[in-house]
C-alpha cells in the first residue's frame, strides 16, 4: 500500500469521478518544505511560532523576513498561508514564560500578540516585506474569539503596511487576510467575519478540543478526543454551509484532513482545500481517488445521523470496503 500511496502523491487530488481538490501541507520549518516529497498545491498552514520556539530570544525583523522569504520562494506559483504567532496553550517560548492555571483558555494566539503590538508589528512587517518580494503570501490570525480582536489585528496590519510602503517608498498590495476558525464562538459569527476577511481555515484540532471540552494533550481523556465525534462533524458541516451562504472562501488545516476517512467526509461537506501533514498526502489522495463525490456524500449523510465516533468510524470502514 505504501508504494501505492507514494504513486498517488504526485497526481492531482481528485475524487474517482474527477472533482478536483487541493491538497496542501502544514509546515513549521523550512526543513518541512525541503523534505516533504512534493505533490502539494501550496502551504495551507505555516506555523510561524515554530521558528520562534527553537531560538533563545525573539527573532529580529530581518531574521523573520529571511525565514518567510525562504518558504515563499519554495512555492513560487502557489499560495502560502502563514499564521501569525500562536504561542500560549501548549506552545511555549523559552524566553517568554507564561504561567497560568488554564493555558488553553488563557493568553494564547492573537490574545497575546494584540497585548504586545511591538512583537506583532515586527512579525507583520517581516511578512509584508516578504510578500512584497514574492507576492504569494496569505496572512492568517489564530484563536480569534471576538470580532473586535479581528478588527484590531487588521488595524495593526494596515498600520504595518502603510509604514512599510512609506519606508521602502514603494506601493505593493496587501496579502489576502484570513482567520483560523478554531474557537466555537466563531461558528456563530461567520456572517460578520465574511465582511472582514478573504478566507477562513478551520483548525479542527482546537475546535475539537474546545467543542468537546477535552484537553487535546491529556492522555487521561484521550479516548474522548475524537475529530469524528458527531458534534464536531456537525460543526464542520455548519461552517461549510455558512461559508457558502456568505460567499466566504473556506478550507481546513486540522488533523482531520490528514485522515483519509476524515478527508472524504470533508470533501462531501464541500471543503475543496485540505491542508495536512506532508507525510499523509499520498494516503489521502489515494483514498479520495477511490470514491465518487456521490459516494462521499452518501457516507456523510449516514455519518451525520450516527451517535458516536466509534459507530461512525465502523460505518465508514464498511462503506469504503464496499466502494473500494
Ligand atoms: C488546529 O488547531 O487545528 C490547528 C491546525 O492549529 P494548531 O494545531 O497549531 O493549534
Ligand atoms: Mg490551533
TrEMBL record:
It is found in: Cytoplasm. Signal peptide: none annotated. Belongs to the PEP-utilizing enzyme family. This is phosphoenolpyruvate--protein phosphotransferase. It comes from Neiella holothuriorum. The lineage of its organism: Bacteria, Pseudomonadati, Pseudomonadota, Gammaproteobacteria, Alteromonadales. The gene is ptsP.
Amino acid at each position: 500500500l505504501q508504494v501505492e500511496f507514494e504513486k498517488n502523491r504526485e497526481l492531482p487530488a481528485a475524487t474517482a469521478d474527477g472533482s478536483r481538490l487541493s491538497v496542501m501541507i502544514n509546515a513549521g520549518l523550512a526543513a518541512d518544505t525541503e523534505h516533504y516529497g512534493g505533490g502539494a498545491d501550496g502551504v495551507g498552514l505555516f506555523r510561524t511560532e515554530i521558528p520562534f520556539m527553537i531560538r533563545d530570544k525573539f527573532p529580529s525583523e530581518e531574521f523573520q523576513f529571511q525565514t518567510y522569504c525562504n518558504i515563499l520562494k519554495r512555492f513560487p506559483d502557489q499560495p502560502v498561508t502563514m499564521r501569525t504567532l500562536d504561542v500560549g496553550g501548549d506552545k511555549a517560548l523559552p524566553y517568554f514564560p507564561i504561567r497560568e492555571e488554564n493555558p488553553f483558555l488563557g493568553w494564547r494566539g492573537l490574545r497575546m500578540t494584540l497585548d504586545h503590538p511591538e512583537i506583532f508589528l515586527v512579525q507583520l512587517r517581516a511578512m509584508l516585506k516578504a510578500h512584497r518580494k514574492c507576492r504569494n503570501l496569505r496572512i492568517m490570525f489564530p484563536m480569534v474569539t471576538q470580532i473586535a480582536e479581528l478588527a484590531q489585528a487588521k488595524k495593526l496590519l494596515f498600520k504595518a503596511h502603510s509604514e512599510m510602503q512609506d519606508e521602502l517608498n514603494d506601493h505593493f498590495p496587501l496579502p489576502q487576510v484570513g482567520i483560523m476558525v478554531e474557537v466555537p464562538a466563531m461558528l456563530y459569527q461567520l456572517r460578520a467575519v465574511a465582511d472582514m476577511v478573504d478566507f477562513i481555515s478551520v483548525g479542527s484540532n482546537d475546535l475539537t478540543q474546545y467543542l468537546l471540552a477535552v484537553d487535546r494533550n491529556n492522555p487521561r481523556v484521550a479516548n474522548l478526543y475524537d475529530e469524528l465525534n458527531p458534534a464536531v462533524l456537525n460543526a464542520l458541516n455548519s461552517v461549510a454551509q455558512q461559508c457558502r451562504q456568505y460567499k466566504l472562501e473556506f478550507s481546513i488545516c486540522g488533523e482531520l484532513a490528514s485522515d483519509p476517512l476524515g478527508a472524504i467526509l470533508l470533501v462531501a461537506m464541500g471543503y475543496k482545500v485540505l491542508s495536512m501533514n506532508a507525510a499523509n498526502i499520498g494516503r489521502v489522495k489515494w483514498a479520495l481517488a477511490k470514491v465518487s463525490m456521490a459516494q462521499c456524500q452518501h457516507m456523510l449523510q449516514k455519518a451525520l445521523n450516527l451517535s458516536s465516533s466509534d459507530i461512525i468510524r465502523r460505518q465508514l470502514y464498511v462503506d469504503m470496503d464496499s466502494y473500494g
